[in-house]
Amino acid sequence: MKLKYNATPNISIRQWFREHYMNLTYTELQRHLRIKNITLNGKKAPPQQILNDGDIIYVWDKVEKQENVFDNTKNTIDESTILFHDENMLVINKPYNICSQGDKDNSTFLQAKNFASQINQYAYPVHRLDKLTTGVLVFALNRNTAMLFSQSIHTWDKQYIALLPSNDLKSGTIETYEDDKKLITKYRTIAKNDKYNIVEFSPITGKKHQIRKHAAYLGYPVIGDMKYGSEFDCKLYLHCNKITLTLEKEFTFQAHLPKHMEYFAQYI
Fold first, then answer.
1. Residue 72: pLDDT over 60
2. Burial, 210: exposed, middle or buried (Cβ in 10 Å; 0-12, 13-18, 19+)?
3. CATH assignment of 79-154, given 1.10.3210.10, 3.30.2350.10, 3.40.50.150, 3.40.50.300?
4. pTM over the 0.70 mark
5. What Rg do the C-alpha atoms of the chain give, in angstroms?
6. Are 32 and 44 in contact (CB under 8 A)?
7. CB 123 within 8 A of CB 113
8. Cα diameter, the chain
9. Residues in domain Pseudouridine synthase RsuA/RluA-like (predicted)?
10. Which CATH fold would you assign to the domain 2-60?
11. Which fold has domain 157-241?
């Protein structure tokens, strides 16, 4: 069966599929376009083709589609993504290609806020994950917890899993400076083959894109991180695997890998 979609104008075919077929890699998209499993107005088109108002995208149902883990009709978090919640906090496994902050574009903050309102609470963003980074994301559900988290977040133990090009790195500490502030990240290789290294990163400080910048600093950008020099044009292979924090007692939250990284779970 062929599915029919009205195209979103002024974005590329590739961007459209990133939003609507989140599991589809760039290589798979190219292949489906080449063999006409996906067409634009019934004709072949390259992934970089810019869509116009009135364009129709046709997709054969053999092209696997991973539905958004959020229920967009209810605009609230699907409970399958919730790792933990009580009267003080909500912890979720943030999916790929969803903003963690902001009050628009179906961000996880908007989703969390709407979820909290159903239990007569309010969600306060405590930290953030990049749009293309998946994993553990914590929200406070009251002002007091938000204040306590803001005071203690520098003590949280965060672990990220990343896929890097094959290299001989074993373990170490990266220290760089940005805006006169020292940025520190610990790392260790937990598995490798002749193509890739699976690396655990533990940021000691917190700065936007810190792990991505530090991986590039080592000379091995995260797979899919073309912004920082990756040669692999694919999804970003970076996941917040675990966070340990203290709120009266110690909590550890761990998030399973997203679909495009599931294969590597056996090595963690």
1. no
2. buried
3. 3.30.2350.10
4. yes
5. 20
6. no
7. yes
8. 61
9. 88-216
10. 3.10.290
11. Pseudouridine synthase (3.30.2350)
